Records
---
Amino acid sequence: MFDQLSDRLQSTLSDVRSRGKLSESDVDAAMREIRLALLEADVNFKVVKTFTKTLKERCLGSEVLNSLDPGQQVVKIVNEELASLMGGTGSELAMASSGPTVILMAGLQGSGKTTACAKLAQHFAKEGKDVALAACDVYRPAAVDQLVTVGERAGAHVYQQGTEADPVEIASWALDQARAERRDVLIVDTAGRLHIDQDLMSELTKVRKTTKPHDVLLVVDAMTGQDAVAVAESFAEAAEFDGVVMTKLDGDARGGAALSVKAVTGKPIMFASTGEKLEDFDKFHPDRMASRILGMGDVLSLIEKAEQQVDEKQAEELQEKMRKDQFTLEDFLTQMRQVRKMGPLSGIIGMLPGMGAMKQLKNADVDEGQLDRVEAIILSMTPSERASPGQINGSRRKRIANGSGTKVQQVKQLLKQFDQMRVMMRSMANGKMPNQQQLAQMSGTAPRPKVRRR
Amino acid sequence: MIDLGSRETANGSPTAEAEPEARRGVFRRLRESLSKSRQALTEEISASLFDRIDDETWERLEEALILADAGAPTTAAVVERLEHEVDSGAVPADGVAVRDRLIEILAEVASTGRAPIDLSGEPAVLMMVGVNGTGKTTTIGKVAWHLSKEMGLSVVLAAGDTYRAAAAEQLAEWADRAGAELIRGESGADPGAVAYDAISAARARGADVVIVDTAGRLHTQSNLMEELAKVRRVIAKQIPEAPHETLISIDATTGQNGLRQAKVFSESVEIDGVVLTKLDGTAKGGIALAIASDLGIPVKLIGVGETLEDLRPFDPSEYAQALLAE
C-alpha cells in the first residue's frame, strides 16, 4: 500500500545506513531524496517542508553525529518522525456511557462513506453490539438502497425514509428510533459533498448539532493528492471531525494524504479500509504503519490477523499431521484457504520484515489466480485421490485437468510441488530447516536472494 | 449544445460547433470553479512572475505546480523548459511574457492529439472504466443526457456494474432522466453478458449509442482488471471495432496515483481518453497534465459540477489559463 514511498525511503536510507560517518552534506542529500519521495507520495507540500526541516535538525543533532552508528540512528529518527506525523500510537473512538453511541460520517463524493459505514457497523456488530445505520444521503441516486443492502449484510438495522425527507430530520428521527429501540451504536451516513459547497456544509453542521455525535469521522480516499489538506480543513470547521477513516488503502496509492491530514488538522487516522469485503477494515496503527513504510515489517498486525482467522485447534491438528507425515492434499487445501482468508498474499508479504526490500518477491506479484487454479485442481480430485495422490495416473490427471479447466501439465506440476513440500515438512518436523534449494523448488522459482541482515 | 463528439444528429445537422456565447459561459464557469478557492496559488504565481525573474521565481512555480498535483517529473520538465527559454533569451524576461509562455507550455503538455469522442459506430459503443468513486455512473448519466436530449440520439445504457449494491438502480435513475433505455442483469451477473445484451438490444432497435458502465475497481486487483479485459473482448465479439471509445474517469482530487490508474487500466483495456471529474472543488486536477505528458492519453471531458450541464469538453489552453488565472 505504501510501496512506492517505502521503496524510495529504503533506498535512500540504506545508502545512509552504509556509512560510518555522516557529514552535513550527506544529511542534506538524504533530505532531498526524502523530500522528493514524500512529494511523489502526495504528502502535502507544506507538510513536507516542515517534516524535512524537523528531520534535518534531529539528524544533525549530537545524538546522531556522535553515535557509533549514525546511519542506523537516522533510520530510527525517520521512523519515529513518520509515526508521530501519522498520529503516534493508535486512537480510540469515544463511546457513550449510556444510550446509543452516535457516529457521524462525512466526506467528499466517492470517498467511500457508504461502504465505510457498513464496515464500521460490522466492526461493532462483531463486538456483539446492536448497530443501526441512518440513511441521510438523499441526493445521490440509489444511495439509500445501497446503504440498506450493505447495512443488512453487515448485520445492522437501517433507518431510512426514502429520498424525499430532509437529511437533518431523518438523522433526528433515526436517533429517536435508536434510543427507543435501545441500540448500542447509531452510524449516520451523509451525502458526499464538496467542502466548498456552503449549503451542504451548513446542512452537515445542522446534522451534527441535532444528533450531537460522540464521534465525527471524516472519510478520506487514500489516493487524494495535495487537495487533501484543503478538504480536511474545511470539514474540520463544519463537522468538527474527531478522526479519519482512510479508504482504498488496498490500492498502490502512496498514502501521502494519510500523512498530511493528521499533520494539518491534528486529527488521527482511526481506521483503514483495505478491500472490497466488509471485513477489510482495520484499526489504524500509525506506529506500525511507519515501520511498514520503512520496510521494518508489521509483525504485530500479521499476528493479530492470523489470530483472527486461524482456528488454533485446526492448526494443531495440521502440525501433528505434518509431523507424522500424514499431510494430505485435503489438508493443504484447508491451510491454503486459511492463509487466503487473511487477505491478499501480497499484503501479507508486505507485513514481513525485510520482505518489502525483496524485489524479486514483489515483482513476482503473488498471483492469486494461480492459487485459484490450485484450489480448482484439488477440488477436481476424488477424496481418495486427495488422501493418497500417489494413485493419480495419466488418465486421472487428464480427468482432473478437464474438471478444473487446467492443463495436464499444471496438474502434474502441483503434484510434484506437493511431493517436495512433504519431503520438506518431514525434515522440518525432524528439526531441520529447509535449505534455499528446497524452498526454491517448492515455490517453483529460482533461488531467492538472501534477506539482508540489519 | 455541446461538443461531445462528432456525429451527424438524427435530423442531419452537424453538432460539432458550439456557439461562441455558450462557450464563453462554459469557460467562465470553468475558470471560476478552478480559481475560486485557489487564490493563494494564483496570488503566488502572479506575484512571483510579475516581480523579477530569479531563482525564487522558479522555486515558487515548482511549488505551485506540485500543489496542483502535476507531479514532480512533469513540474520539473515544465519549469526547466521555461527557465531555459528565458535564460537563452527566447522568451523575454518580462512577467507577462513569461506567464503567457507558461500557459502555452502547459497547454501543449495537456494537448496530445485531442480528438472528439468517436460516435461513428453503428451503434457507437462507449465503455466507461475507473477506480471506485471517481464518478463513472454520474458521468454516464450526463453523457447519456447530452446525447439524447441535445443531440437527439437514441441511447442504450448497459448496467455493467453488477457488483456494488444499488449501482444499477443509480444508473436506472439517470437512464430515466436522459430518456435512455437501460439493460441490466441480476446483481452479481456477468458484466460481459450485460454488455452483450445491451449491444444486441441496441442493434435490434437501431439505437445510435451504447454506453457500458463497469464496476469501479482498483487497478491493483489483477483479477478484476482481467474481468474488464474480458468485457472488452465480449463487446468486440459483437462489433469488431467496438468499443469505439473507452474512457477512464479520474477524480480531480487524485494525486500521483492517478498516473498509475491510467497506466494500468490502459494496459488492460486501451484507454482513449480521460474524463476529469469533480473539478468544481479546490483540486486542480494537475494529474491530467502528468497523464497526458507521460502516457499520451488526452483529457476529453471534464466535470465541473452536479448538474447535467456541468459536463464539458476539455480545452487544454483554457484549462491551463484557468489553472493560473487571477
---
Amino acid sequence: MIRLENVCKNFGDLQVLKNVNLEVKEGEKLVIIGPSGSGKSTTVRCMNFLEEPTSGQVYIDGQKLTHANKTKIIRESISMVFQQFNLYPHMTVLKNLTIAPMKLHHKSKKEAEDLAYHYLDVVGLRDKAHVYPTTLSGGQQQRIAIARALCAQTKIILFDEPTSALDPETIQEVLDVMIKLAKENITMVVVTHEMGFARQVADRIVFMADGQIIEEGTPDHFFDNPSNERVKQFLGKIIR
Amino acid sequence: MKISTLFYTIKQGFVNIFRNKWYSLASIATISACLFLFGLFYCIVANFQNILKTAEEGVSVTVFFHSDMDNCESHIDGQIPSEQRLEEIGQEIAKRAEVSEVQFQSADDAWATFGPDYFGEDYAEGFPENPLAGEDTYEIFLSDVSMQDALVTWLQSIPEVRKVNYSEMTANTLSGLNLLIAYVSMGIIVILLAVSIFLISNTVAIGISVRSAEINIMKYIGATDFFVRAPFVLEGMLIGLIGAAVPLGLIYSLYNYALNYVINRFMVLSGFLNFLSVDEIFHFLIPVSLGVGVGIGFLGSIATVRKHLHV
C-alpha cells in the first residue's frame, strides 16, 4: 500500500533520512517510535509528499509519487492528523469537517454534512458540530481533527504525534478514538511516544534513530526482546 | 479551472477582505497614501512642464533674405532668392523635426504691422515707399527649443539667407530648465514609486504572513497550490484596486477645485500659465496608478503565498 525505497531527505547540509526502506500493507497498523530528531515525522511527511524526498521513491498502491501526480494520488488515498490540530479557528466544527469533502472531493453539502455527523458520532462529539474549535479542549480539538481526516474517506491515515500537544488528562480520550479506529480496515501509520498504545494497537513497530530504521518487528518482539542496543537504551529510559 | 473553483476564488477573495478588515484597511490606506503622494507630485510636475512647453512654443527664430536693397557686400556673398526659391526654403524649414510652425511674412505685411505700431498711423502713411521693401521673412516656431542652435547653423548655411534673428539665452535657459525639471521629477517619481512598491508589497506580505496557518491548513487537507493561492491573489488585487481608486478620486476632486480656484482667483495668470485639464492629467495617472496598485497587489500576494505554500 505504501512503499518507501531508499528515501533520503536533506535539509541543507543536514541529512535527516538516510536510505529509508519501508513497506506498509493494506489495513496494517504501523507505529514508528524513536528519540527526537530521529526522522520519524519526516518519514511520515515523505509518505504524503509534504516533504519531497531528496532521493529515493515513494509508492502509493504501486503508483510512484511525483510532483505532478502527488495531489491527485494523495487526495484519494491519504489523510493526516497532526500534532497541532490545524483546524480553522474562524469556522465551526461542522464547516471544518465539510470544507474538504465539498471543495476537494466535490460532495454536495448534504452528503458532506451527513458524513461529518457520522464521524462526529465516531469520535463522540456530535453535540459540538456548531461550536468553534477554540471553545474546545485540546483533546476534543484533536478528535475533531481525526474526524476531519476520516471525512476524507481515504484508505490511509497518517498520525504525526497526535497526543504530544495534549495534557495527560486528555491524551487518553484521543487514544481511545484511535484504538477504536484501529479495529476498522484503515491503514494507520502512527508516530507516537505512547508505548502502551503502540503495544495494544500496532501490528508492527519501527524504531528510528539518526535518520535510519534500526529495528522493526511485532510489539512482542520489540518490547520483550529487542536486538538493538540503542532500542534497549531507549525503552529502558521510557518504560520504568 | 472549474467554474465552481472560479466562484469559490471570487467569493473567498471578497470574504477575506471583510474577514481581515483591519489588515485590509491598513493595506488600502498604505497604498492610497503612496499613490496619493505620487499623483499629487505628478500633477505639479506635469503642469510645470506644460507651462515650460508653452513658453518654448513662443520662442521663435526669424530668417531674413538677401534683396535688391542690400548693400554691395551682401550682394557679393549671397544670392537673391526668387519667389519660387523662397517657397522651397519655407518647405525645407517646415520639414525639419525641431520645427513646429513656419509663418511667411512679406515685406508689405511686415510694414503694415510694424509701421503703425512704431511710427503711428499718420506718420506711417507719410512714407512714400515701403521702407522694409525686400525684407521678406520666415518666422519659425520650435517644437524642441534645445535644437535651436542646430537649426540656426543650418539656416545660416543657406546662401539666400542674409540674417537669422534668435535669442540664444532664452532658448538655453528654457531648455536647461526643462532638462533640470525632467531629471529631478524623474528622480523623485522613481523614488516615490520605489517607496510605494516597497511599502505596498510589505503590507501585502505582512497581511498574508499572519495567515500562514490558514494556508498551511489548506495544504494539509489536500488543496492544490493554485486553489490556495488564487483567493489570496484576488484579495491582493482587490486591495490594490481600491487602494489606487481612492487617491484617484481624491486627486480628481482636489485638482478640479484647485484649477478653478487658481483660474478664478488669479485671472491675470491665465494669460501665460497654461494648466493641464483634468482629462489630460488622468490620461496618464489612471493607468499608472491602477497598474501600480493592482500589479503590486498581484505580484506581492503571489510571492508571499508561495513562501508559505511549503508546509
